[in-house]
Design brief:
This protein has one domain (13-283): Carbon-nitrogen hydrolase (Nitrilase/N-carbamoyl-D-aminoacid amidohydrolase), CATH 3.60.110. The protein contains 5 helices and 14 strands. It has helices spanning 27-43, 64-69, 77-86, 164-172, 196-208; strands at residues 13-19, 48-50, 93-101, 107-115, 118-124, 145-147, 152-155, 177-181, 211-215, 231-233, 239-242, 248-254, 263-264, 268-269. Helix 1 (27-43) packs parallel to helix 3. The longest helix has 17 residues, at 27-43. 45% of the residues are buried. Keywords: Hydrolase.
């Protein structure tokens, strides 16, 4: 796979996002592809590996029956294979998307945080995009924050990134790195501009002062093409590496613990300067504008 590398420093963790092409409804094949990709990345020196959304099933599932046919439990052999691949390098961690069969029989669009000991956490996508709500049950738990040898890793999935409140939830829980498995459908954009998903990731990284790793996918699926916007964004909000088109990887070396220094200027602090008493509207029920808004007097 083509890749981009940043020179290694002694205090850094080497992070990679692996942009690959899952085959729709091919669970055994996708299990092999993802496990092989993790092993290759770990052998190349990766400490943290991020895979796309629904990497085990493909995205363009027609209905709940198709989703159920490729759904696996968190204790499945698929994720056991990911853990085995992590054991090739001490401390290696993978975050990847999978179609999950929950304990209650419901189907979820999920991400697993896995290391050599097994599954450390499972996150279920809370904000379902468009027709996903016809296939999956939304998650109701906050993004997990997992302590690893390299720092504190959290995860959310694709559309979740569009909700600043959800990113801030992970930041306030102590996340140093936010891994974002995603499937960004290809859309139009002005010449010379970054994909909008990358712009959102840059804003999230900047406002939360944490590393954000977005792993998109490639390939064509039931008429869908993909942005192929895989990237690693530093805690300052600037893109450190991109995968580019096709099957590819984005690599960057980052000091995750440096994310914890959230000073802003000589006197400011990104978390300490918050004014929670002013933010009640952020968590209020949806407002139907403009009919339900009263005139504001200043």
């Amino acid at each position: 796979m083509p890749s981009q590398h940043v020179p290694t420093r002694a205090t850094t963790a080497r992070v990679t996002a692996v942009q690959l092409a899952p085959t729709l409804l091919d669970l055994p094949g996708n299990a092999r592809r993802t496990t092989t990709a993790i092993a290759a990345a770990v052998d190349a020196g990766a400490d943290v590996v991020v895979l796309p959304e629904l990497a085990t099933s493909g995205y363009g599932l027609a209905d709940e029956a198709e989703a159920r046919s490729v759904a696996v439990r968190a204790d499945s052999a698929v994720l056991d294979g990911w853990a085995a691949a992590c054991r090739r390098r001490p401390g290696a961690v993978v975050v990847g998307g999978f179609c999950e069969l929950g304990e209650d029989g419901r189907i979820h669009n999920s991400a697993a945080v896995v290391d050599g000991t097994g599954v450390r956490a499972v996150y279920r996508k809370a904000h379902l995009w468009d027709g996903e709500r016809l296939l999956f049950s939304p998650g109701h738990a906050a993004p997990p924050v997992v302590e690893t040898a390299h720092g504190r890793i959290s995860t959310l999935i694709c559309y979740d990134l569009s909700f600043p409140e959800w990113v801030r939830t992970a930041v306030l829980a102590g996340a140093d790195l936010l891994a974002v498995p995603t499937n960004w459908a290809l859309g139009s954009r002005p010449a010379g501009e970054r994909p909008i998903g990358q712009v959102v990731a840059m804003a999230a990284a900047r406002s939360g002062h944490l590393v954000v790793v977005c792993c998109d996918r490639t390939g064509r699926e039931r008429g869908l093409d993909w942005t192929e916007g895989t990237c690693v964004v530093g805690a300052d909000g600037w893109v450190l590496a991109e995968a580019g088109p096709g099957t590819a990887t984005a690599w960057a070396d980052v000091d995750l613990r440096a994310s914890r220094d959230r000073r802003a200027g000589a006197l400011g602090d990104l978390l300490g300067d918050r004014r929670p008493e002013l933010y009640a509207a952020v968590s209020a029920p949806r407002l139907h504008l403009p009919e339900q808004r009263e005139a504001v007097t200043v």
